[in-house]
Amino acid sequence: MAASTSLSLCPYILCCKTSPRNRYISCSVGSPTPIGTRRTKVPRKSSGRLDGARKSMEDSVQRKMEQFYEGTAGPPLRVLPIGGLGEIGMNCMLVGHYDRYILIDAGVMFPDNDELGVQKIIPDTTFIKKWSHKIEAVVITHGHEDHIGALPWVIPALDPHTPIYASSFTMELIKKRLKENGIFVPSRLKVFKIRRRFKAGPFEIEPLRVTHSIPDCCGLVLRCADGTILHTGDWKIDESPLDGKTFDRQFLEELSKEGVTLMMSDSTNVLSPGRTISESAVADALSRHISGAKGRIITTQFASNIHRLGSIKAAADVTGRKLVFIGMSLRTYLDAAWKDGKAPIDPSTLVKAEDIDAYAPKDLIIVTTGSQAEPRAALNLASYGSSHSFKLNKEDVILYSAKVIPGNESRVMKMLNRISEIGSTIVMGKNEGLHTSGHGYRGELEEVLQIVKPQHFLPIHGELLFLKEHELLGKSTGIRHTTVIKNGEMLGVSHLRNRRVLSNGFSSLGKENLQLMYSDGDKAFGTSTELCVDERLRIASDGIIVVSMEILRPQKIDGMVENTLKGKIKITTRCLWLDKGKLLDTLHKAAHATLSSCPVNCPLAHMERTVSEVLRKTVRKYSGKRPEVIAIALENPAGVLSDELNEKLSGNYNAGFGLPTLRKVVDGHPRRGLPNKMKAEDDGILHLENASEQSLLDDDAEAGRFLPVEDTSTSSPDYTDKLTPNTDDSNELEEHEPEVKSDGTASNGDGSEMTGSQPKSSKPKRNKWKPEEVKKLIKMRGDLHSRFQVVKGRMALWEEISTSLLEDGITRSPAQCKSLWASLVQKYEECKNEKRSHKSWPYFEDMNKVLSD
């Protein structure tokens, strides 16, 4: 016997393999390979199942596979958690036999406090959609949000004919959810009963009755030719449940004799020693407190705990009080239970919230939502005094019949502090016996492990710490093969035909990089990047800066080329410490300095990027923050700054300011009145009288700064002419458009052409429409001729033409294009009526193509 266990001493090699069909071991004896000779590798015959594992998960080095096993290669039973492992909530798991899978549960997870604006976190629906051809059924264990909340997003990702299985009460909750989202298809919904087997995908499934904090909760037994899997769902062992439906120990004992290849069990309360108390004990505690109260009773609990509602109803009947439900989720669960025949209360007997004042306080019990201090929950609103349903007073008794979920401690405590300040009595705490968990404690977990005695054990449902501790508990009960995996890791399992085999039946089959999906209300849905979750947090932490820049390119005036940039910069900040305005001044200086370093032909996008980075670094150096900076650069469509801005730049502050510009300054300071006397003249200009230079500088500090920005680079006269757009007359608010001359060019409006050699004039120069520009305008107008026949929306079409010209390097405003077109039409009619030669006007043929139709 000793020789047979030591390969180094045995002259022969004993080869054993398990027959795939019969439960016996066949052995063969072969001669050993001589030393020094290479042994020929005999290919292994594929039997559709791997007996034992290719690699143990207990090895120090774990294999990393790029792809999952597919087809009949590898272990037959496969588990791929999509959510719920390493976290509380979002329970969702794929369980399969080779390449055929079922999806067990599809729950949501609620966001942390730093995930701003997010309402729900959902499993990776993109991966579910990618594997939809392999998923043959969805099976739901019970109706809590962390098990059914993601169905409105998961179901559209599946094949349209994939069935959904659930118990009757759970199915009522699912129906309501699907109807609200417009995806209710009755033919896909299948109701199962406890201990009634049904076929779903590759498995024959038998639901197992377990006790929990919601009716119709079940575990699942999945059977196939290659083994049996037990998925417990959420559970506890309640020896005396209020509905009389006890935890089915007998079934587990029978299942143990049959043999369980893999057991997956809830790990939520593995760190809590002992056993949970029964819901009946909570009912007694509620009855005791309600009977001893003299004033109004207000209870808060988890809305899904129908059994707890039954306890409150029983206490109300004993004390002669009426029940009031305040909170939509309470009515949702109660209505579903009523339709399924499991409601302890007839919804029609409840007192309406608007009729509370008709009853004496001692005759009422108000059942309300808000145990976790949700922002819009009734109890939380009442603590602020802003609830429309009821007002708290010092005679009220608050029975806190719930557990504070980890992560909510701070906001729950703040709510309770506000209630205490009002003077209401709060009854809560473990010693009061007002709450019991729906998840088994360590003693119950150990008992079930000892009953089932599975070959393999995989802890599920809990933080990574809980999973590791549950694994150790499994080993302490004698289970040899245990492991812990995370979301996205596929685990293969093979049934061990001989319990004395020392190899591990677990196999690592690869890892999928899953991504969390987020819901931001009724419509917004996507990844954290698509919903800008990190950006929201960054703005909340470091603030935001919005800088708008109206850029004026260098131009030629009176034969001299300006070598400076002029621009208007306005900076707005939110959630940022400004140091009494000092930081804002610093940001303005930094923005102007940055623009001065840009080339005169710098693209707007480059200006935006550069200014954003400089301002971000400036704030970081000033206060250690890295704010989000949004820079918007726009060309000045008029080509030059208005006369009032030029006068401001030159230091003359007593001149009239245009009304629109001044309004912008005033609107920027709603609390600051103008220290000057203003009067509006008939010309539409708002004049300032006795305006001091300092007062105007103060008003301009935040609304925007107009400073000349020097550029070290030079620009050629040709490039300057190309950038020179049209300007306004100094006393006109509307653009004066040029007239089209007979040669097709445009005059400057006073009958003379503006050239670089012209004597100095008070009016800035206009550049002419070049012939090729005029032809482009005619062509673009012709392309849109049919759309111009519609009376409304014509100005938008001129804006489209202006934008198209800008893409070709031609800077013209919509008004300029419209004015030139009117002049062209007038010339065309004159030529047509006078029967002049087409050659006398170079644009006649182009215009005739457009207007002759």
Automatic annotation (TrEMBL):
UniProt keywords, alphabetically: Exonuclease, Hydrolase, Metal-binding, Nuclease, RNA-binding, Zinc
Q: Where would I find the Myb-like domain in this sequence?
A: 761-825
Q: Which GO terms describe its molecular function?
A: exonuclease activity; metal ion binding; RNA binding
Q: Where is the composition biased (Basic residues)?
A: 38-47
Q: Where is the composition biased (Polar residues)?
A: 711-728, 744-761
Q: Which SMART domains match?
A: Lactamase_B
What's the protein name? Myb-like domain-containing protein
Organism per entry: Gossypium stocksii
